[in-house]
Design a protein that fits this description.
mainly alpha; 69% helix
Length: 158
């Protein structure tokens, strides 16, 4: 009778172990599988690539652009942490913000309106572009060195 109870207990324990094995196997399969949509998309891309190679055509390379967080850039430029930025860092982030805003179709932040009822002149956009290009040239010349940036910037102001 004691043996029967021990067998029943050990049988239950082995059943629990087996269930745990199944659960762990299922979890492992979930981690190592992809969704049906992702799989179908990958197959379609591979088919397109294979068709392109077979037909002797060249495949267009699409450049993946990483998303820029405009709000984070604004916070870095105008928040409390701006005191820690060098002139080079500030200008570089300002140029990044300008580029991203303009790519989104927003107005150039370097163009200022004279008043609430006025609109910028076409010449204002040319001037803003010139300012941005001079600042970008200073950043490029500096190559990460804040002192070189400051010298180049001061040289260009004169």
């Amino acid at each position: 009778m004691i043996e029967e109870s021990q067998n029943a207990v050990s049988g239950t324990e082995s059943q629990i172990d087996t269930n745990q094995d199944y659960i762990s196997a299922l979890n492992e399969m979930k981690q190592n599988t992809v969704s049906k949509e992702a799989y179908d998309k990958l197959r379609a891309d591979n088919k397109k690539l294979l068709d392109t190679i077979v037909n002797g055509q060249s495949l267009e390379q699409t450049e993946v652009k990483e998303a820029v967080d405009v709000d984070a850039l604004r916070q870095e430029l105008f928040g409390k942490s701006r005191k820690d930025l060098t002139n080079l860092d500030f200008v570089d982030k300002a140029l990044q913000l300008r580029k991203e805003l303009m790519e989104r179709g927003e107005q150039d932040p370097f163009v200022m309106k004279a008043g609430p009822r006025s609109s910028p002149e076409p010449d204002d956009f040319k001037k803003a572009e010139r300012v941005a290009s001079v600042l970008q040239e200073c950043v490029d010349v500096a190559d990460g060195n804040a002192d070189v940036f400051n010298n180049e910037f001061q040289r260009r102001l004169i």
